[in-house]
Specification:
This protein has one domain: 3-Layer(aba) Sandwich (Rossmann fold), CATH 3.40.50. The protein is built from eight helices and seven strands. It has a seven-stranded parallel sheet, with helices on both faces. Strand 1, helix 1 and strand 2 form a beta-alpha-beta unit. It is globular, with a radius of gyration of 17 Å. It starts with 13 loop residues before the first strand and ends in a 7-residue tail after the last strand.
Amino acid sequence: MNDPRALFDLSGKVACVTGASSGLGRQAALALARAGAKVVGVARRASALDSMCDEIGERAARVSADISDRSGIQALVEDIGAPFGAPDIVIHAAGLNTRQAADDVTHEGWDNTLAINLTAPFFLSQSLVPAMKAKGWGRIVNFASLQTTRAFPGGIAYGATKGAIGQLTRAMAESWSPFGITANAIGPGFFPTELTAAVFDDPDRAARNAAQTCLGRNGRMEDIEGPVLFLCSDASSYVTGQVLMVDGGFTAK
């Protein structure tokens, strides 16, 4: 009988994580490293990425870059592959939420939100897929949201991108899964990250959100690790085109 733990073993794999400087992206990077992967973190803040690399050690590297710059994608791909080789796994955890009400959305806010939340995950994946095809194995994990299916105040631009992420994930699966590349998404509920600071800075609001879940609590950072390892490993080899909500049952109620 095979050891079921081997299904989650990422030894020999290379993972790229955008948004690895903080929040769920950083937590995902740490989890992948503990499972044996070599990890390349991508974000704009070099000092925060250095902290991640220090915690992981020699199996981590960082690339400081602005993923919203479409003209720099090819150079970014080369930088990502330089430390350990072309990635087998890519997690798109970088995100932007301007929290502008519909009447106040600016052209700049809209364009920046789409560039980071939607455009970058597609074009970076597109550029990394050829190496995955050559290996016959790959994992793409996008970050969806409660707003993939729910409308929140001040979330029209963010929600539009996260709704699109659901369809992008399905379309990626249709296009690339025949080559051994699965494409799935994680939809986090409320976790205490920089992106949700406005929520957790208001204890009453945080408590109301917790009360809306089936579990009666908001997310803890470690809650993201199991789903990440599942979707990035052989444990999910027959799972593709799915959005896995990691929200304590918020969207079930």
